[in-house]
Amino acid sequence: MAVELNHTIVASRDPKAAAEDFVELFGLAGPQSFGPFQVVEVANGVSLDFMKADDTPSQHYAFLVSEDEFDQIYGRIKERGLAHWADPMQSRPGEINHNDGGRGVYWNSPDGHYLEIITRPYGSGG
């Protein structure tokens, strides 16, 4: 049996606002309500289930995107004036990286989660 990630819960002070922010930034279909969750589907069948939580410990979520999607999402990051970094240590502000022959960038969600987009999986560049 193949093991696949189906969904994960994203703690949020305001699940509706957080899910809407996410879909707008990533250019995805709007969230769907399911019980206490605001569910956002991503392309590989995984969903992010935004749920109300007063305490939102920072989590890291990394997304593999195409070159065109990277351009679109990164454009929205810059349009919004979001602080972003080329590295997880936040030592290269306002930059992107070119790890593994692709591109990547990190930024924080409104709830403090550390988001990342990459165009090549880690270790794929030889």
UniProtKB/TrEMBL annotation:
This is VOC family protein. The lineage of its organism: Bacteria, Bacillati, Actinomycetota, Actinomycetes, Pseudonocardiales. Residues 4-120 form the VOC domain. It comes from the Bacteria. InterPro entries: Glyas_Bleomycin-R_OHBP_Dase, VOC_core.
